[in-house]
Design a protein that fits this description.
The chain has 363 residues and is mainly alpha-helical. The protein is built from 13 helices and no strands.
């Protein structure tokens, strides 16, 4: 059995987020606008899934490392380093496999930075902060990182939708080289400089984990997390008047707004966990939730979804399935959504088998 003391609402939030990541990443053809990332300034529901995951990772870092009392022992440091390296390498291998199946078996065009690589760097930075620094500096450090990044954006033309003048794009080009960076937008959404506000993002999640751990009852946890979310959403909204929301450059307003929304959703789920504990008449308990299957093997299922998408696409299965769906659903956007839901269901089936067998893969 899963530990009953585990904050099950966090598993649900993680599951919602990972299922959302798989959904928005695997539409086929023309998707609804809300299931596509905003082209530049602005924010769609699609833009919430990755930042939610980073925020949740911050909470999990606190709840995990508190078990070792945040002591930088050899065992703890080895585990942190091993996990960071593993995530980074898996990210590289996914992009290598995609290229290799297309005939490029070398490393000359390997994209270096991507989702798992950013997760790895943020996890490493925040975990080292957790074991070496006083936690009273969590918010000041997060704020300092956002201030530094704001200066970089303002002084380096960071909001320019032009790779030739944008400091973020130019930095990636100088450090990584043209053949190893993302080319589908002016700025790599997982680029190097954008890792600075992403670390601040995870630190805010870490602070939320601290609030959750320090409050004794679920009622107190709800109040604390809801208050944090409200402050962050208001701060993000106000800041967006000078620094617009922008997922591509991971703007400071985007950090605050998405962390705030994640906090509010976490507070809502904790309140639901409290309701379930008080009543045995709930129609949908947290233990049987669809999203808990994703939440208990979150990174493993995200990786499996990326690998399945590459393999099914390469062997023509994805196109065959989509064409079958499109024949039944003529509207292209609805057919795309149906395909994405099918793909989520495919990964759920894999996750359900793991969940039933109590296999929880920790990447």
């Amino acid at each position: 059995m899963v530990n009953s003391k585990r904050l099950q609402s966090l598993d649900i939030l993680r599951g919602i987020t990972v299922a959302g990541m798989i959904l928005v990443n695997n539409g086929w053809g023309e998707s609804f606008e809300m299931l596509r990332h905003s082209r530049w300034n602005g924010m769609t529901p699609c833009d919430l899934v990755f930042p939610f995951f980073l925020f949740i990772m911050g909470i999990s870092c606190y709840l995990s490392l508190v078990k070792s009392e945040f002591k930088p022992t050899v065992t703890v440091l080895r585990r942190i380093l091993k996990r960071a390296v593993l995530l980074f390498v898996i990210g590289l291998l996914i992009h290598w496999l995609d290229g290799a199946l297309g005939g490029d078996y070398g490393l000359s065009h390997l994209r270096i930075m991507a989702v798992l690589q950013r997760i790895a760097l943020c996890y490493l930075a925040v975990s080292l902060f957790a074991v070496y620094c006083n936690h009273r500096y969590t918010l000041p450090v997060a704020t300092g990182l956002l201030v530094v990044y704001t200066a970089i954006l303002l002084l380096g033309n960071g909001y320019a939708e032009d790779a030739a003048t944008n400091v973020l794009a130019q930095f990636d080009l100088s450090v990584l080289g043209y053949d190893h960076i993302y080319h589908k937008s002016p700025v790599d959404p997982e680029g190097l400089l954008g890792t600075i506000p992403s670390i601040a993002h995870v630190l805010l999640g870490f602070y939320c984990g601290q609030l959750i751990r320090q409050r004794e009852t679920l009622e107190q946890k709800v109040i604390a997390v809801f208050a944090l979310g409200t402050v962050l959403v208001v701060a993000g909204y106000l800041l967006s008047f000078g620094l617009p929301l922008n997922k591509r450059i991971w703007s400071p307003s985007y950090v605050l707004m998405t962390c705030g929304l994640a906090s509010l959703l976490q507070a809502l789920l904790i309140s639901e966990e409290l309701r379930v504990k008080r009543s045995s008449a709930s129609l949908l308990t947290l233990n049987s939730s669809f999203f808990k299957v994703f939440g208990m093997n979150a990174l493993a299922l995200y990786v499996s979804s990326e690998l399945l998408a590459i393999l099914l696409g390469h062997f023509g299965v994805s196109e065959w399935v989509y064409n079958g769906i499109h024949a039944l659903i003529p509207a292209a956007k609805w057919a795309s959504l149906a395909y994405a839901l099918y793909f989520v269901g495919l990964n759920y089936a894999l996750g359900y088998v793991l969940y039933r067998k109590k296999i929880f893969i920790k990447l």
